[in-house]
TrEMBL record:
This is ATP synthase subunit c. F(1)F(0) ATP synthase produces ATP from ADP in the presence of a proton or sodium gradient. F-type ATPases consist of two structural domains, F(1) containing the extramembraneous catalytic core and F(0) containing the membrane proton channel, linked together by a central stalk and a peripheral stalk. During catalysis, ATP synthesis in the catalytic domain of F(1) is coupled via a rotary mechanism of the central stalk subunits to proton translocation. Key component of the F(0) channel; it plays a direct role in translocation across the membrane. A homomeric c-ring of between 10-14 subunits forms the central stalk rotor element with the F(1) delta and epsilon subunits. PROSITE patterns: ATPASE_C. The gene is atpE. NCBIfam families: ATP_synt_c, PRK06876.1. It holds the Pfam family ATP-synt_C. The record marks E59 as: Reversibly protonated during proton transport. HAMAP family: ATP_synth_c_bact. Keywords: ATP synthesis, Cell membrane, CF(0), Hydrogen ion transport, Ion transport, Lipid-binding, Membrane, Transmembrane, Transmembrane helix, Transport. The lineage of its organism: Bacteria, Bacillati, Actinomycetota, Actinomycetes, Micrococcales. Residues 12-72 form the V-ATPase proteolipid subunit C-like domain.
Amino acid sequence: MDIAAISGNIATVGYGLAAIGPAIGVGIVVGKTIEGVARQPELAGRLQVLMYIGIAFTEALAFIGIAVGFIFV
């Protein structure tokens, strides 16, 4: 087995594990937004904007994870 193949496989598994965190984070952000809208429907527009900002920051972690995979492989 070639060392490059092993390294590539490890990087793939590493990125898969790194994607779990942002997925959980997005789920929490969306869930809390739904909970907030249920409690105060008049703030739905504001909460939606904040939700999209939170999702963007959370997904940035996934992009950093894939960039690190390209840098170190």
